[in-house]
UniProtKB/TrEMBL annotation:
Domain of life (superkingdom): Eukaryota
Source organism (scientific name): Zingiber officinale
Stated name of the protein: Trafficking protein particle complex subunit 6B
PANTHER family linked to this entry: GEO08327P1 (PTHR12817:SF0), TRAFFICKING PROTEIN PARTICLE COMPLEX SUBUNIT 6B (PTHR12817)
Record-linked Gene3D superfamilies: Trafficking protein particle complex subunit 3
GO cellular component: cis-Golgi network; trans-Golgi network; TRAPP complex
SUPFAM superfamilies noted in UniProt: Ligand-binding domain in the NO signalling and Golgi transport
Family in the record: Belongs to the TRAPP small subunits family. BET3 subfamily.
């Protein structure tokens, strides 16, 4: 769905496609977190919110918890999913490998796909009162890590 949307509407402007897909994810995350925290007491600190995202929110979205959570205790969190559900069926075309080491359109499609969950995480955290920036890395499929940087 995400890659088809990007190809159809923003084929000539991939950065615009990425921004729009992330914005849609933001809206989805913003609305879903309201539903999942409706009957919970307020969170006390950032770490408690991130733990909720890793355990309960991720469980609702992807039927599993985040495999690993790392932090530097200065506002940066790394959420690692060793078998990210949306990347399990993606394969890299070996014929698209270039001599310069880039992976071509396969990695572009993977990166485009990851803007949506980045937006979901950012929208959920924003609705819980934590403004942040979220980026993703999927250098070794289906492993994926999401870096959350809380804005001061």
């Amino acid at each position: 769905m995400v890659s088809a949307y990007g190809r159809r509407f923003y084929a000539t402007k991939p950065e615009l496609a990425a921004h729009r897909i992330e914005a849609i994810g933001y809206q989805v995350g913003h609305q879903l977190i309201e539903r999942y925290t409706m009957e919970r007491p307020r969170f006390n600190d950032h770490l408690e919110v991130i733990k909720f995202i890793c355990k309960d929110f991720w469980q609702e979205l992807f039927k599993k918890q985040i495999d690993n959570l790392k932090t530097n205790h200065k506002g940066t969190f790394v959420l690692q999913d060793n078998n990210f559900r949306w990347l399990t069926r993606i394969s890299i075309d070996p014929s698209s490998d270039n001599n310069d080491g880039s992976q071509g359109s396969s990695s572009e499609a993977t990166n485009l796909l990851l803007y949506f969950p980045c937006g979901i995480i950012r929208g959920a955290l924003s609705n819980l009162g934590i403004p942040c920036a979220v980026s993703a890395d999927s250098s070794n499929l289906p492993f994926c890590s999401f870096m959350v940087r809380i804005k001061a």
